[in-house]
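Justification of computing resources. Each target in the renewal requires a structure prediction run like the one illustrated here; the chain below, 201 residues long, is used simply to show the kind of job we budget for.
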Amino acid sequence: MRGTPLELKYLLANSIREKPDSYIIEEIFIRFPTTEELIEVTEQELTLIKGIGQAKAQQILATLNLAQALSKSDPPIYMIRTPEDVYKLVEPEMRYLKVEHFVILMLNSKNGVIAKEVISIGSLNACIVHPREVFRPAIKRSSASIICVHNHPSGNPDPSREDEAITKRLTEAGTLLGIDVLDHIVIGHQKYVSIKERGLM
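Resulting C-alpha cells:
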C-alpha cells in the first residue's frame, strides 16, 4: 500500500469524518502501527476500539482496500549508487528543518530504497538514537541494508564526535543482525558529508 503513515491517517480520518488527531484515528495507528498490520486488520479487531461499530469498521476496511488497490502500480524503486543519490532523495525534505531529524533509508539487496522512516527528532543540536529503534523497522521490512541520514540545522555538515560514535555503534549492531549500515550522510545547507567517504566508519 503506497502512502506514508501520515497520508494514510488523513485518508482514514476523511473517510469516517474524524479529525486526524481524534481518539479513534490515534488508536487505530497505535494498535496497527505499520502498513502491513493495517492491510491485515479485520472488522472484529476494529470494533474492539471504542467508537467503532460495524458500519464504521466496514468503512475503514473499504478505504484501506481502495488505497491498496490504487498502489498496485508502484513507481520504479529509487536506486542508491552514491552518497549524492542519498542527498538528492532527502535534501528537499530536510533543507528547512530547525531541529535534527535522524532518518534511515531501508534498501533491498540491489540497493533500491524500499522504505524511509524518521527514527528520532532531537533538539537544536542533538538527536537521541538507539540501535533498537533504528533496526526495528529494517527488520520488519526484511531490509538487506540501511543508510543513516541526519541533518545539522547549523548548516555545517561536518560530523561531530557523537555522529562518529553513533555510526560505529549502529554499524556494530548491524553486523550482529545481518543488516549492513552502508553509510551515514550528514545534511547541511546545500551540501552534505558522507561519513564513509571520510573514512570514519
